[in-house]
Amino acid sequence: MDAMIVTRDLVKRFGSLVAVNHLNLKIRCGEIYALLGPNGAGKTTTVRMIMGLLKPTSGEIYVDGIDVVRYPDKAKRRIGYVPQFFSLYGDLTVLENLDFLGRIYGLAREERAKRIREILEVVELTKFRDFLAGNLSGGLKRRLSLATALIHDPPILILDEPTAGIDPPLRRAFWDLFTSLKKEGKTILVTTHYMDEAERADRIGLISLGQLIAEGTPLEIKRMVYGGDLMRIICRGTNSIMEELASLPKVIKILKRHRIGDRKEEIILVVKDFGSALPELTSFLRSHKMEPLLIEPVPVTLEDAFIILTSR
Asked: What are 33-82's pLDDT values in tens digits?
């Protein structure tokens, strides 16, 4: 399949509360897909339904072509899951936790030992293999959770805020690992509140009140705020060019015009694409006897987009 995770008109109600409202997702094979949304948006509820841990009120869910509602146990074997909170056995060692999960997934003894050695090296837990899980630091517990999700070498990873509460260097290391796993062909669905992490995803789904309100690459999401790229122009001249400027094919709209002294003005406008609009606008200004002193992009951050789109 070209899509590893699909939801169709997915709904989950808790009494009168609609936590997930006709959610349609299509997560492609071999991509990192970040699910973003404010608290209470329905992210964790969605993840638990995809995992087969929570039965939907209505709708369909498919994981690697398997109907999760009808065959939840079969679907779970295709997924490695890192929950939001640490849920492993604190009175077992790191090695014992991994060995136990390997047995649950039916791995033979030799294969299990080989996978444990490999994974401990990948998540840098080899020297902690004999430590009790309950005595590990928060960051090491996160590593162990990821290790147990990888023990059966699943094609899909579902990570519910996997880096919450850990320091920036470890967060970066985790995302370097996610990128490596993606290159191996794994499909990764991750929920996060960190905008810098979401920037590293291939695509983002932005949900609010249980509904998908925006979807696309990080750049596409940022462009949704104004409908394109923001451009700032400072030019010198006295000609009135606003009407003609607004009618150019690559210009979507003019947001602001501000005079700076007698002969300078600042113009903020929305263009379809900054790179392709730059030469056209430079030529236009010069042909109208306006000297371009500065033309630069105005950055819209993912955080800006998140706040503006969800508030709408």
From this structure: 999 988 889 999 999 999 999 999 999 999 999 999 999 999 999 999 99
Where do the DSSP E strands lie in 37-155? Answer: 58-63, 66-67, 79-82
Angstrom CA distances, 142 to 58, 94, 95, 118, 302, stand at 33, 12, 15, 17, 26
CA angle 154, 219, 174 (to 5 degrees): 35
pTM over 0.70, yes/no: yes
Domains belonging to the chain, first-starting first, are: 1-78+154-216 (3.40.50.300), 93-150 (no CATH), 227-301 (3.30.70.100)
The letter for the amino acid at 176 is D
Single-letter code of the amino acid located at 240? S
Q: Could you tell me the CA-to-CA distances from 230 to 278, 295, 300, 303 in Å, in that order?
A: 11, 11, 8, 16
Query: What's CA 139's distance to the chain center, in Å?
Result: 21
Give yes or no for a contact between 310 and 205, defined as CB atoms under 8 angstroms apart: no
Beta bridge partners of 33: 189, 203
